[in-house]
Structures are given as C-alpha cells and as structure tokens.
Automatic annotation (TrEMBL):
Family from the record: Belongs to the IS21/IS1162 putative ATP-binding protein family.
Residue ranges of the TM segments: none
Protein name according to UniProt: ATP-binding protein
Matches recorded under SUPFAM superfamilies: P-loop containing nucleoside triphosphate hydrolases
Organism for this UniProt entry: Brevibacillus panacihumi W25
Length: 255
C-alpha cells in the first residue's frame, strides 16, 4: 500500500470515518477494476460509511435497550393467540403509533405473549432507528429509588427519559408506597407526549388504583397514560404452559 493511501486513511480516521479508512484500499482497487466514475466512487464510499454507521448505532441501541431476551414478531405464532389478528400485528409493526406518540397497553394473564410482543415491537423500533428501553416495573422502581446515589441508575434513567419507546413490563405486579408512586408519576409525566410507552400488565387500569394507593396520583398517571392509547387484551390460554417442556422428554399435552 502506498503512503498516500495511508495518509488518506489517517485523514478519514481524523474525520471519524473509520469504516471508510479501513476499506479505502479495497475501494480504490474496485474503482480501477470496474472503472468507476468519480461520482460512482464517491457514492460507493459514502453509502458504505453510512450503512456501517447505522448498523453500529443499531447494535448500540440494542445493547442499551436491555431486553431480557430477543424474540421477533415473526416468531410470534398468531394462530396460538386468537385475541389478536395478524392484521393488527402488521399494523403495530408499521410503528405509526410510535411516530404519533401513542401508548400501548398489553393486558392478559401470565404466559399469553405480552412480553414477547413488547420485545418484538421494541426490536422493530430499533431496526427503524428509534431508541428503546426495556425494564420491568420492579427494575424501574429500583432505578428511580437509587438514582440519587447510583450513577448506574442515573445513566439508565437518562436513557429511559431520552427514549422514543419505553417498555415497562409487568406493571403493578407489586403495590407501591407513596414515594414510589410519586417517582413513577414524575417519570410518566416526563415521558408524556414525548415518547411512547408500552405497558404490560395482568391487571386492567381499573385495578391500578389499589396498587398505586394514592387516588390523586393514580388519576394523574392514568390521565397521561390513557390520553392516547391502544389497549390490547390477550386472552388465550398460556402458551408457556401449553408448550412447556416436560422432564419426561415430550411436550406436555394441555388438559
Ligand atoms: P407474558 O409476558 O404474557 O407472561 P411471554 O410473552 O413471556 O408471556 O410468553 C411466555 C413464553 O411463551 C415466551 O417464551 C414467549 O416467546 C412464548 N409465547 C407466548 N405466546 C406465544 C405465541 N403466540 N407464539 C410464540 N411464542 C409465544
Ligand atoms: Mg411477561
């Protein structure tokens, strides 16, 4: 490799185009081989840098999202869940609701696919360039309570506050005390009309009051969450139980 190429590679690195820098010799070789015009050469180089950059950003967003597992919507078997249609799943996948800052509430008993759908939509959003975070209600409360003295919690809450989509899994699994309810309200208020929230819960909003405790805070939270919302009720039998693996080596048969 001649020294001019190396110098140019260094210039590219200075300009924070490391991907192009690494590939430059290959680009020059191809340009000669295929007799690229100046315009073609420049276009190849720039689209390569942009593509690599977006892939890296998507990787970073995926890491920050902190999904407990990764399952796509394509892996969701729609015929196993009669309470949602493939058309609805397709519509959700288009993410118009996210662009319009709509919230989604996924309700239903354990094992019906609430978390799976939430993660699937989260993955879709990441692919389309959105910033996403996932936390269970328990983790979220922990973050809120420890933000004053744990930098780690501060960092994660900052990401949550900056996200386009905030997934809160298993809402109201536990009763909240006054301080927790207050902290939770402030978070929801912060996200209100700036981001979309996906909430999953095994209890409907009419029961959230008991768990939040304070009537005023409950109303204020519900006001914001339900202002622009799509509620999806999943009702089928638990997929988890139906398809649990058995220690006897065969899939269990539902009774
Ligand atoms: P929930 O959050 O409603 O309790 P999950 O989404 O965690 O339930 O689902 C439990 C398990 O069953 C997960 O591994 C999930 O991927 C799987 N599952 C549930 N419903 C379906 C479905 N319709 N198609 C494929 N897998 C499913
Ligand atoms: Mg779940």
């Amino acid at each position: 490799m001649n020294s001019t190429v190396q110098t140019m590679q260094n210039y590219f690195r200075h300009l924070r185009m490391a991907e192009t820098a690494n590939e430059l010799p290959e680009f020059l070789r191809k340009a000669e081989k295929f007799s690229w015009t100046y315009q073609e050469f420049l276009e190849e180089l720039l689209t390569y840098e942009l593509k690599r950059r977006e892939a890296k950003n998507a990787e970073r967003r995926l890491k920050w999202a902190k999904f407990p597992y990764q399952k796509t919507l394509d892996e969701f078997q729609i015929d196993e869940q009669k309470s949602i249609s493939s058309r609805q799943i397709k519509q959700l996948k288009e993410l118009n609701w996210l662009e319009q800052q709509y919230n989604l509430i996924l309700l239903g008993p354990p094992g019906v696919g609430k978390t799976h759908i939430a993660i699937g939509l989260g993955l879709e959003a990441i692919q389309k360039g959105f910033q996403v975070t996932f936390s269970t209600m328990g983790e979220l409360i922990h973050l809120l309570k420890t933000q004053e003295y744990l930098t780690k919690s501060q960092t994660q809450l900052k990401r949550i506050n900056e996200s386009d989509l905030v997934i809160i899994d298993d809402l109201m699994y536990m009763a909240m005390d006054q301080r927790e309810a207050n902290l939770f309200f402030h978070l929801i208020n912060n996200l209100y009309e700036r981001s979309s929230i996906i909430l999953t819960s095994n209890k409907g909003p009419e029961q959230w009051g008991e768990l939040i405790g304070d009537q005023g805070i409950t109303t204020a939270i519900l006001d914001r969450l339900l202002h622009r919302v799509e509620v999806i009720q999943l009702n089928e039998d638990s997929y988890r139980i139906k398809y649990r693996s058995s220690i006897f080596g065969e899939k269990s048969v539902q009774t």
